[in-house]
Write a structure and sequence with these properties.
By secondary structure, this protein is an alpha/beta fold. It contains ten helices and 15 strands. It starts with a strand and ends with a helix.
Length: 294
């Protein structure tokens, strides 16, 4: 299986008021990429415990490919509480399995067959997983001009540093960020006093990015490419919860780009996919054929 699209980082359980649901941005991303008909794989780690076994069984049931080494740490959990607007608040447990992803021969072999990878800052809070992610990026083919390295920033609970963010932005060629994260990044890197779009143009040029995706919640989203910008309004839907909506956006966008669609076409599908996921409970609903038959 070549030209694999990889979601790399945290695989965990979101413990919601109505019960636990499988989650973690890389797993959500890989699951939705698979729904768009591409080869996908989750790379993370689990503990030698019932929660880890259940993650593997869940992925097996979804026919989702994975590499999940078993490590001597508990499988990750996140306590999720929803506010009045259905927006999640997270309490992410530390020193868990996905903090300690080892770089194995199997992961090395996968890197050589990877067409696109999505990784974030959260899984880099611990040196072990951070080193594995960077080694994976180094092991990917270096001569493919269409290869995508997507850094979905995902700032959570202060689990990030300027050094981690800088290194990741230098290694990626697609950056995904939301408006709140952009304000934080601007403060860290010293871009105050200019509007969000100007900050995006600065980052696009500074890090020689192919694309920068900026999501602004109900205020729409933008995709910046050298010399052009695509804007899409956010559809108005009845929100069940927003868990995983951003990951589905990224998956739909990257899947469409890899299938040869234009940035504008990929952006429209990403917005519609994310809006649908917001109408469903949990991060991994089955997408309708109208979205995935592209």
């Amino acid at each position: 299986m070549n030209n694999v699209v990889v979601g790399m980082g945290e695989a965990l359980w979101d413990v919601l008021p109505e019960g636990k649901k499988i989650g973690g941005a890389p797993a959500n991303f890989a699951y939705h990429v698979k729904q768009f008909g591409l080869n996908s794989c989750v790379v993370s780690a689990v503990g030698e415990d019932a929660l880890g076994d259940e993650i593997r069984m869940n992925f097996d049931k979804k026919n989702l490919n994975y590499i999940l080494p078993v490590v001597p740490y508990p499988t990750g959990t996140v306590q999720v509480e929803l506010d009045g607007d259905g927006v999640p608040q997270y309490d992410i447990k530390e020193n868990v399995a996905w903090d300690n992803i080892p770089f194995t021969a199997q992961i090395d072999e996968l890197a050589a067959r990877t067409k696109a990878v999505c990784f974030g800052s959260l899984a880099q809070r611990n040196v072990v997983s951070r080193k594995t992610i960077n080694t994976f990026l180094d092991a990917m083919p270096q001569d493919d001009p269409e290869q995508l390295r997507v850094f979905d920033i995902n700032l959570r609970q202060g689990f990030y540093t300027k050094e981690i963010l800088t290194n990741s932005m230098e290694r990626c060629n697609v950056l995904k960020i939301n408006d709140e994260e952009l304000v934080t990044i601007s403060r860290i890197f010293g871009y105050p006093g200019i509007d969000l779009q100007d900050k995006c143009w600065i980052l696009l040029g500074k890090y020689n990015l192919k694309m920068l995706i900026l999501t602004c919640g109900i205020n729409g989203s933008y995709v910046f490419t050298p010399g052009q910008v695509s804007f899409q309004p956010t559809p108005k839907v009845d929100v069940a919860d927003t868990v995983g909506a951003g990951d589905s956006f990224t998956a739909a966008f990257i899947s469409n780009i890899l299938k040869g669609k234009s940035v504008q076409e990929a952006h429209k599908c990403a917005v519609d996919t994310s809006a649908f996921v917001c109408t469903q409970n949990g991060a991994m609903p089955v997408l309708p054929d109208s979205l995935t038959n592209i």
